[in-house]
């Protein structure tokens, strides 16, 4: 019998989450049955979509029930197995949640090759954020070589990948990020042509800065934030521009709604510029994972794609790290080290 | 030498246009040169897009300059010609504007077959509004047989055609129109399954009425109005629904902007339902005119497609008819009889 320490949803947040919305508990897991295996979690990924799951609102996925373990992508090691596809010692990626241990039958779990790249990337550039960037750029944003793209949350787990993939397509790549340190990183490490610090701008001046940064206008906007960045980019979109709507983190906790640009101005841009605006969630595109890995895996392996992780130590620090991330306090892919590296 | 009476833009409107924004003048046209021909206008079409041209704002087309003739699609008769492609007596469709006579070199002018359908349809169901409906439904709305569509301005020149073309595709077709008379017409004459009177609803109750009318949700929204209709439909859109943005007449003159739904709620719908929202203007799709005529021409000829015209008598009444149309006062395609029928 194995004890699992896990973090459950204690209450639904009213606006921004607080640590009171979470509760830590320890449960004893049952013995595994035929076809099952037991994992110990090494890495937990924290991602903005989790904020949506905390609300009891109709969305693309069911909310986390009160008292249930918080959802989350993880990288883990098989430590006991009655499933020959997942033998002891294998590293796997799966959605085991905010927990130290879990039992699985293998559904939705994939084996990770630890020789290709550090295993944490299985929840980063080579995991959900990576394929989100890849699908959003190509299939939703319909990005073409030589076009200009603006990437919001430019150094985030998804945005940082969008920028690098766009640069590999010879696009002009303009990032928007919070603070000079992130912008510096976007240009020096991720290869952005330019990065604008939204802390230094209101919507209007950010719009002017984008106009200057994109003398030929903006063809693709990778949208993760909403808020003033959306407003600033909209006015700079080219005719037949595309907006890939991947998130709206600026509005997730209900803030900024009153300050949002009036809808008619947005609609007018869509109409007069014949924009295509499309929302997407990556879960519907996972069948492309093999294609994504075949194309992007080698780029991570040989260093053409770089990444940065912001690591919180210990599962007990996951709630605060998550709250900080929602406020833009992280720098790079937010991960939680739940357990020791495999030997 | 021929005198042309014409209506020019006297001043730019501040909000809703008034008759003071227009001025009537008479000019003497020069003699036609080689390659040119002279027409007398029989029908002038009034369309919502003209409101945009009255503003000095960046849009998809240049504004009408102060003192210039108001733009407009017309059906006319060639009465003098030095162009063998357009001999005297031919009926033609072209953008001659709000005028009784004009000289053309044939650019953008097409010959109309008066035996196929009444010639006014060349600016209606078989003209710009017709192809707008056809392209918007099929190419932008990506409508499929058996899906559910909501059509705003359901009895308008474009909407009435969208509804009928959608019905011909075996879709469930729900109209939204202003007043019981229009709704009655939509159901009895245009074949809508249902039509909701937006005068009888606020956004919330209209949303409930649409939910009831569309038990399987809404797959396609043909958007011409914005305002509360947009808000009401959005909440009923199905996952992977499409919104073809053809106009936003409710907001054209700046009214209703404060009452508009907050942008974050709209963005949330786009994201969580993976909607595709696309603006279009028909001028970019005119190369499909032959395909459109081949498919839809016979449907008008044999009565499968019906239409209704709201006729203002005399060019001098065009400004008031235009103002009334912007307020939803017309019932059917708004036309102005500028000259007598051909003999």
Automatic annotation (TrEMBL), chains A, B:
One MF annotation (Gene Ontology) recorded for this entry: oxidoreductase activity, acting on the CH-CH group of donors, NAD or NADP as acceptor
Claim: Cell membrane is one of the keywords in the record: no
UniProt cross-references to SMART domains, sorted A to Z: PKS_ER (SM00829)
Residue span(s) of domain Enoyl reductase (ER): 18-336
Keyword Isomerase part of the UniProt annotation: no
Keyword annotations of the record: Oxidoreductase
Xref: PANTHER family: PROSTAGLANDIN REDUCTASE, PROSTAGLANDIN REDUCTASE 1
Record-given protein name: Enoyl reductase (ER) domain-containing protein
Native organism: Loktanella atrilutea
